[in-house]
Fold TetR family transcriptional regulator.
Amino acid sequence: MNEVGLRERTRLAVRADISKTAMDMFLAQGFDATTVDEIAERVGVSRRSLFRYFTSKEEMAAADIAVRGNEMLAALKERPTDESPWDSLYAAAFSSDGRGPMSSKDRTLQVAQLLRQTPALQRFRLEKQKRWQDLLAPEIALRIHGDGRDIAARGIVATALSCLDASVDIWVESGGEGDVLDVFRTMIAAVRG
């Protein structure tokens, strides 16, 4: 077996465990009330070891955002390239295989509330938007023909992600009532004209 591949998989698994444990603690006792030392103790590693995986508590809270972007890209790559860019993005954002943002409604609501209500985490939401655009736009460009397709792809992705964020905002504001998919679908339909 490839040792580097195994090492990286182990690192990713430990990172995911730390992130999940940290998020569980943030949800239970609040982001500001949770210390890095408490997270390290709960995970069973030293503070120094913890910082080999994450540079900050904020990064631990936002780790799932980065993972979700990669999952969306993987779902997008599975879509046919002759499919509409909008339809491909919708399907990738709300994949039915459990990778979508609503795979666990209660936890998703709690995490979304935490990310939106914690000032220290606002920057990560903005950075996510940029990272996801950079990640998804090249794949969307494959679905567009003609001059300016890279620019068009970036615009489509930025618009779709803004609609996704706004849909989740509305869903969070309602306390998780209704269907975020319907809100997103309505927004995309309005944008598309």
Remarks:
- Residues 3-29 form the longest helix (27 residues).
- The chain has a mean pLDDT of 89.
- DSSP finds nine helices and no strands in the chain.
